[in-house]
Amino acid sequence: MKWLRMYHLLVVASLRSRMQYKFNFWFSSLMAALINVVEFAMLAIILLKFGHIKGWSLAEAGYLYAILTLSKAIYRTVASDVHHLEKYLLSGDLDSLLLRPVPVLLGLMSFNVSFRIGEIIQGAAVLAVSMQALFAAGQISWASIPLTLLVILSGALLLFGIGLLTATAGFWITRIEELQNITEDAARTAVQYPVSIYPKWMEVMLLSVIPVAFANYVPSLYILRGEGGVWLLLSAFAAAVLVFAAGLFMWRVGLSRYQSTGS
C-alpha cells in the first residue's frame, strides 16, 4: 500500500506538470482518438461491404477492437514510459531513477503519465454500440458486462507484461524500437481483427510466441459465442498473470546487470 500511495502522488505530480500545457494535452488526446476512429472505420467499411470476415460480424469485430483499445489505453496510462525505456538507457536518465527512494519500475511508470482520454472514450463508444447490437441479436446476456470488464483489465495486464518483457530486452541489446514494433505495435494491430482470418502459423504465433490474442480474441470466443467453455476465460486471465510475472522477473534480472553510463 505504501508504494501505491507513492505511485499516486507521483502520478498527480506528473499530471500537474503536463497540464501546464493544456492545449498540447487535449490536442494529443483528440489526435489519438481520431487515429483510432480512422482505424475502426477502415474495418467497418470492409465488413459493411462483405457482411462478415470468416463468420465474424461487424458487431463482433467491433467488440474485439474495443476491448483491445481500452486495454491498451489502461496499460499506456499507468505505464506509459515503460514503452520508452530505450531513451532512458541511451541518455543515462535511468541513473536518476536508481537514486530515488522508490522502486525503479514504479518511478518509470510515474514519469510522463499519459492519460489516454480520447482512446478510452472512443473505445467505450465502440464497445457500447457493439454490445447493444449483440444484445439485440440475442447473442449475449447481461452476464457479459462484468465478464467484459474483467477481460479489459486482464488484457491491460497482459499488454503491460508483453511491453515489460520487450522493454527489459533493452538491458541486453539497448536498441529495442524495432522489437517493440513487432511485439507491441504489429501484434496488437493484428488482433484488432479475428485471429482466425490469418494463416495457421500466424495464429499460433499470436497465441503462443506473442500471446496478445489472449487479450481479446480468446475470451471473446466464450463471451460472444459460448465456445470452449469458461476455461477459455480462465486461460486468458492465467496468461495475463504469467506474462506479467515473467516481465517482472526479467525486469529484476535486467536491472541487476544494468551498467550506468556515468554521465
What does this protein look like?
The protein has 263 residues and is mostly helical. The chain is 73% helix and 0% strand. Helix 2 packs parallel to helix 7 and helix 8 packs parallel to helix 13. It holds the Pfam family ABC2_membrane_6.
In terms of quaternary structure, the protein is: single chain
Helical amount: over 70%
The unreliable regions are none
Biggest sheet record: none
Helix-strand category: mainly alpha
Using only C-alpha atoms, the radius of gyration works out to 19 Å
Q: Provide the succession of SSEs.
A: HHHHHHHHHHHHH
Average pLDDT score? 84
Strand content: under 5%
Number of strands: 0
First-to-last CA distance: 34 Å
Compute the number of helices: 13
Shape: globular
Please outline the helices and strands:
Elements: H1 2-18, H2 22-50, H3 58-78, H4 85-91, H5 94-98, H6 104-109, H7 117-136, H8 144-168, H9 170-173, H10 177-190, H11 200-207, H12 217-225, H13 231-256
Helix pairs in contact: 2-3, 2-7, 3-7, 3-8, 8-10, 8-13, 12-13
